[in-house]
Amino acid sequence: MGYWDDKRVLVTGGAGFLGSFVTAQLRKSGVSQSNLVVADIKDADLRRTEECQRVVRDIDVVIHLAAKVGGIGLNREIPGTLFYENAIMGIQMMEAARLAGVKKFVALGTICAYPKFTPVPFKEQDLWNGYPEETNAPYGLAKKMLLVQSQAYRQQYGFNSIYLLPVNLYGPRDNFDPRSSHVIPALIKKFADAKEGGRDKVEVWGTGNASREFLYVEDAAEGICLAAEKYDGPEPVNLGAGFEIKIKDLVELIAKLMDFGGKIVWDKSKPDGQPRRMLDVSRAEKLFGFRARTRFEDGLKATIDWYLENGG
After folding, report:
1. For the whole prediction, is pTM greater than 0.85?
2. Which of the residues 17, 54, 99, 241 could staple to 292 if both were Cys, CB 3.0 to 4.6 A apart?
3. What CATH code would you report for 9-171+213-242+278-293?
């Protein structure tokens, strides 16, 4: 009998970008449709204690993906909202799960939890060696509290909660809303809009010197499900692809893949965010056999194709 065969699994945020791929991966791994429960913002407001208590009834495994997220612009615009909503959802979900006797809780953190000047590649043991990059700090710290809660609950209650730290995700069905999207979907939309409007230039935030690591969403879903199945430890685990690319090179690559021959204008008055981001991904491979499989250019092409067919 497989690990998932008799498990009732709750995925919070299960109808969202990452959630839709996680639920598909769970079905592929053996979770029956009748045992898969999705809690999304439309039917469960997880900022409310009673809603958290309702959705965890008769659940064996919780995969907590629900989050309020955005790019640098949204992080600067509503830092208080991002702190409160992410902290309150996570704290209440984990407490409700503990009280309901849930056997396993998978908490999703964020690369934004790392200190601003973390040595590259980011190792899990460096997580507490400084304050996060300022524009991301309220969001990053709210999600980081789930690690503290996970470890405290394990120590006091023997509660099996694990904590994963994914890098920036990308892929089909991403959020392409310019107000709240991350860098890859934002750039794809900018180049598509420029081509459609016959414009010969695209403006991009920052200097282009910052670097980022990106994980294809299908790979992320596989990593989360592997961790849920095979990892039961207290230590945080990075989920990434193990490479970095400068924003300047990313912009030029997307422009090339989208056949945009115009000018790229850098607005250096806008922030770069964290200077560099790349994870050490050896712990995930060692503890539950996860390694990202999708080539970055292949993932980008799939994301671009999806956007051009579906218009975001």
Report:
1. yes
2. 241
3. 3.40.50.720
